[in-house]
Amino acid sequence: DGTKTRELAKAAKVTDALIYKIFPTKELLFQGVLEYTLAIKETGWNEIRENKKGFNFLASLIDLFLSECLS
Fold first, then answer.
1. What b-and-e string marks burial along 54-65, b requiring 16 or more CB atoms within 10 Å of the CB?
2. Residues 57-62: contacts with CB within 8 Å, 24+ apart?
3. Which of 3, 17, 50, 66 is such that its CA lies 20 to 30 A from the CA of 32?
4. Residue ranges of E strands in 6-63
5. Distance between CA atoms of residues 34 and 23, nearest Å
6. pLDDT at residue 24, rounded to an integer
7. What are the tens digits of pLDDT across the range 13-58?
8. Residue 31 CB coordination number (10 Å)
9. How far apart are the C-alpha atoms of 26 and 31, rounded to whole Å?
10. Residue 25 in contact with residue 31, Cβ under 8 Å?
11. CB atoms < 10 A from the CB of 23, how many?
């Protein structure tokens, strides 16, 4: 198993339907988050990394990523 999309959505304060609308598969979600993460400015990355660990870190990245997608 692994992390459920529903859990990530809850942690990112969005619906799982929104995640599936933007990313139909977990693979596409992971790819999108990874690509976005690589593009984050160093200061933003460090700020998130210093304040979040593990699951909360991933949820924070998804939240940041989805905010950018929707703006």
1. eeeebbbbbbbb
2. 58/3, 58/8, 58/11, 58/33, 59/8, 59/11, 59/12, 60/12, 61/33, 61/36, 61/37, 62/8, 62/11, 62/12, 62/19, 62/29, 62/33
3. 50
4. none
5. 13
6. 92
7. 889 899 999 899 988 988 888 887 777 655 566 666 676 666 777 7
8. 12
9. 8
10. no
11. 20
